[in-house]
Amino acid sequence: MPDTQNWWSTIAPAAPEMYLATVICVILLIDVFAGGSRRPRLTGTLTLIALAVGAWVTLEYGSVGGRTPLFGGLYIADPLALVLKLSALLYVAVALLYSRPALARRGTGGEYHVLALTALLGIYVLASAGNLLSLYIGVELLALSLYAMIAFDRESPVSAEAAMKYFVLGSIASGMLLYGISLVYGLTGTLALDEVALRLTAEPSLGMVAGVAFVVVAIAFKFGAVPFHMWVPDVYHGAPTTVTLFLSTAPKFAYFALAYRLLSQGLDGISPTWTQMLAIIGVLSLIVGNVFAIAQANLKRMLAYSAIANVGFILLGFTTGTAAGYSAALYYTIVYVLATLGAFGVILLASRRGFEADELEDYKGLQARDPMLALWMMMMMFSTAGVPPFVGFWAKLAIFEALWQVGAVWLIVIGALAAVVGAFYYIRVVKLMYFDDAPSAPRGEASGALRLVLGVNALATLALGVVPASLFDLCKAVLG
Amino acid sequence: MTPNLLIAIPLLPLVAALIAGLAGRRIGRAASAGVTILAVGISCALSLYVAKLIFLDGVPASDITVYTWLVSDGIRFQVGFLVDRLTALMMVVVNFVSFCVHVYTIGYMRDDDGFQRFFSYISLFTFSMLMLVMANNFMQLFFGWEAVGLVSYLLIGFWFTRPSAIHANLKAFIVNRIGDFAFVLGIAGVVYWTHSLDYADLFALAPSLETATFALSAGTTVPALTLIALCLFVGAMAKSAQVPLHVWLPDSMEGPTPISALIHAATMVTAGIFMVARMSPLYEFSGAALTFVLVIGGTTAFFMGLLGVVSNDIKRVIAYSTLSQLGYMTVALGASAYSAAIFHLMTHAFFKALLFLAAGSVIIGMHHEQDMRKMGGLAKYMPVTAVTCWIGALALIGTPFFSGFYSKDALIEAVGESQRAGATYAYWCVTAGVFVTALYTFRLLFMTFHGKERFGHDETHGDEHAHGHGHGGAPHESPWVVTVPLIALAIPSIVIGYLTIGPLLFGGAFGDAIFVREANDVIGELGHEYHGPVAFALHGLTAPTFWLALAGVVTAWYLYLKSPGTPARIAARFAGLYSMLVNKFYFDWFNETLVAPFTRLVGKVLWKGGDQLLIDGAFVNGSAKFVGWAAAKGRRIQTGYLYTYAFWMVIGLAVLLGWFLIGA
Amino acid sequence: MLVMILFYAFSAVLIAAALGVITTRNPVYSALCLVLAFFTSACIWILIEAEFLAIVLVLVYVGAVMVLFLFVVMMLDINVEELRSGFTRYAWLGWLTAFVVILELVGVLAARRLGVDATQGTVPVPADYSNTHELGTVLYTQYVYAFELAAVLLLVAIVAAIALTMRRRQGLKVQDISAQVAVRREDRVRLVRIEPEKRP
């Protein structure tokens, strides 16, 4: 075949997705045929190796200079997609690493890892979606994997309840997304996002406004923004901590891609409509997330409300409708997820058989029991609270700066107030760890290597805060 | 010059400081000292190499940006190095003195518990000072400025169990805050008018800003450049201990002696001088600011020297001498003789570090006794220290052919040439200062090394047994790690002036690093009469300054060797004057009885009324209560029932739809 | 004209059936209403000449999915009244919201600025036009990426379903048929020779 070379070059940038799909099948088969008690561990190790290779494949084939459409525009390879994919891959890998002891304790089957990989594939598809169709399939691929992962612990009725709630509400949101997409399709006559952007009229028709509203509701649901946030606390709390860790980190990149590809690229022409909707949702999220977080006694639940509040910040970045705002939102997402990863990592590493370490009470006097873990947790909390010199501070600053450029002063004021309220409950964790008396709680049973990874994770929040420019410039470059 | 070379120079001491500071206990004393000395040694060698490239090979100045920290509103905050002839000279001075002090410290701090901590601090200081001098922008300058201040604070209070040390470091910190406040205002001014933090942008724009003004209030305007220059200079006044912000420097002698040599004589206190020289393209456009500089410098040079005559603490005498010499440099700056100021800065760094280290050696020899009244005749016991101290003293008073002579004479003559307002006052101050300098310097020499031995085996004081080590209280020569740095510093103290006066002052060795306007070029005027260093020195023999210095020496000899009873009689006769000097012109009294209580009162009122009542009471606690209440109420919405959640989603959708459909 | 009449007729049935799904109390009736709704939707699709999709809808949804659904519903004896106990308390609020949403959507449809004129609507195609063929052509060329991903989606569904349901629980009493079949006499019966007791 003389044109094999030629044919391959037209689809080479999609190699990461093909690789992932292949590897999913291979691991699934190995998992089935490899017997014995070592099976869960074997699959976990294989998955991590597959992710390492995947990073190389993504970097090797996914880095294209500019915007490269493939498969008739269903697939877009561009620098943004590369950054999103690599971030998601890294966070998935670290999340699985943190989860290893907990998974081994429960003897969780190998399918867990396969589902994690399919979720990652969903994130990849979303990151590269150039068409409403691939966008929707990506959303469903990710969502389905997550539903199954949440329900994975069959022994726990709380997990089943969480999965059920997420599934039903997710289906409703999915229906709304489809309805919105069908309106957009019906009024523009195309599924390709580039084409949609071209065919938009400056003054949106009523049908388009309705379509945008449905789409925005679906996006807000996925992010967990108010008032579509009700599932977040229950799911974060009810799911096994390994799954909470997973679903609170990497999927955020997928939802960023969903919002960016659909709103900022596809519906750019009518941005005033959706930026206002997002502003309302964002402000509500900031207020509700931060205020409710204070009343929580469970750390996972508190972090769930914290997620709602932080999503508010990400959405504020989108409300600017400018490249600066999107890059600030991307930066915020990367930075926030980094600290969340570490915070749930601490919960996992502090836990042991019969001790979940997810109540705030469990962290009283952690400093005396496990000073290193307490230090890492403190760094995560400070970063999320936005205390300089941790990187979370720069992320908030970037959002505020982007808002300032478009003159949205009232959003800055609300954001700053919310950040102050937020600082209260993050720093309360630090207070519990450092200034309260230690009850005799057991120590986590994680290995030294994992503690090291967590240390690197924590130090990254500091290092990126001391030298914030490179990451921020990267975010600017890919969205420029 | 590659960027990596330049980055390595400040970074090596930083890495060493981190190692010694964080792992000092684990790796032990020898390793901590070794790693810091090695790092500073390499850094010193590298800066000598850079100096060779710049001065001998004629490599052009490099202005590189290493890292952009952040960009805000178009203003770049970055780390960058501007290495030109001025910087290269400063780098050599800083590193060389620092290296000597590192070696010397091994001996001086041998018995101290904080050995590793000390090495960590001085390496950190070296890093900070290098960052300061190598900066190419105000952000980094300010970083270095604050960092050297911080390390100085830590080191003055190094023996933190002594209340006097704590008082001294607090004083240094607070006085420097006043200067830093003005300094930040100056930087703000720079950003306001140039919209950039880079030196290069300011220098390029300075000529065009000459006519710019800033409205203080309706009707009153000040020239923008003068405002910036004055603000920056107030910062320099605190750092370089100029009247009236000098009060911290004498007290800073509470720190260990190597610190006095390194920070409070040779390097940090000259940061202000360096900064003004670096900003010469700015100062040249503000005659008013330079006049202010002249007057402050002259006052410091003369009046602070006087205080040296009445002090009995060997280190304090040198400290007042430092104040006075800094005044000389400041005067040179005010007269637009920037190169003379830097020249004096360099020679002063060597001989003053030498004097301090020699004083330290005496203090070791005397088992930590600092009072000169309890010394005398030490030359017999400590020959190396005595000889090197003599060299330092001769350099300080400006004996022809010694380094201090060249820099000081050139400086005084430059001031004499200056036509600027205030120059006459400054000229008289510095000329009279020559006599005072000679007087207190030789008073120190005679009281310490010559005359009757006033320490005695009969005298009993507590320290003696602690430090006796079996040979009673007899003074002894210091170990080689102390004397070798003394010798290493003595050599440049003699020859550096002779070797470098030609190129530095008249050979244009600073190139375009220093900018002087045609009309102000006093050094250029002097250059017409300059015929080599020997001729300059011979000419100096006939100048009034030489005879004044000689008179000072003779007076000291008469008062402290020939007729030791006379000083007490003079003191009794002029009791009012004497008590004014002993009380240091009442600066401390003024600060402590008027300024400090008033400030504390204002602070207390604001704390009680503003903080506790309004902010804590109404805002913080009030809002916290509200939030708690809202959270408790709001939890009811989160029922846990699926249909509630779905219902809220639909309501959200309905509201969103309704809002925008009606709006559209 | 006929098409219009048919369209409105099917639409009316569709809406009625959809209402029936959520209002009837018996879950079996609900499922049957859903079957009706699917069926009328298929009819409407035929009106716009999407025969293949219409047939697939009937075959897959009505034929397979809904039948399975009905089996499940009939086997599980769900007490609907209990589920609805909290529901009816807020029914008025539900009706209100539903009404508002309907009002809004009607407002969109009734507005002159709906914007459908952007697309021209469907054009009649010749009789020999094969809907299936056309779909196949684009499905395996232009939309192959989405098609393959849909396959992965199905795979995920299968994996998830199996992982969540096939689970060997500890202490569960089950029969191992193959072991029962493969058993040999020696495994079960042990012949023991017992020495008769001797009298001392």
- Which strand-content bin applies to the residues of chain B? under 5%
How many H/I helical runs of chain A? Answer: 21
Oligomeric status: heterotrimer
Structural class by helix and strand composition of chain A: mainly alpha
- Mean pLDDT of chain A, rounded to whole units? 90
- Overall structural domain count of chain A: 1
Q: Which chain pair has the greatest contact?
A: A-C, 45 and 33 residues
Low-confidence stretches of chain B: 458-472
- Indicate the structural class of chain B: mainly alpha
Distance between the amino and carboxyl termini of chain B: 64 Å
Radius of gyration of chain A using CA atoms only: 22 Å
3D architecture notes:
The complex is a heterotrimer of chains A (480), B (664) and C (200). With 480 residues, chain A is mostly helical. Chain A has one domain. Chain A is 76% helix and 1% strand. In chain A, strands 1-2 form a two-stranded antiparallel sheet. In chain A, α4 (79-106) packs antiparallel against α11 (241-247), α15 crosses α21 and α17 (371-385) packs parallel to α20 (448-466). Chain A is globular. The relative contact order of chain A is 0.09. The longest helix of chain B is centred in the last third of the chain and has 48 residues, at 587-634. In chain B, a hairpin with a 2-residue loop joins β3 (213-217) and β4. In chain B, the strands form 2 sheets. Chain B has a two-stranded antiparallel ribbon with strand order 1-2. Chain B contains 27 helices and 4 strands. Chain B is 72% helix and 4% strand. Chain B has 664 residues and is mostly helical. Chain C is 70% helix and 0% strand. Chain C has 3 domains: 1-79, Up-down Bundle (Four Helix Bundle (Hemerythrin (Met), subunit A)), CATH 1.20.120.1200; 87-117; 129-160. In chain C, α1 (2-23) packs antiparallel against α2. Chain C has helices at 2-23, 27-47, 51-75, 80-89, 91-110, 131-140, 144-165, 177-181, 185-188. The chains are: A mainly alpha (480), B mainly alpha (664), C mainly alpha (200). Chains A and C meet through α2, α5, α6, α7 and α9 of A and α5 and α7 of C.
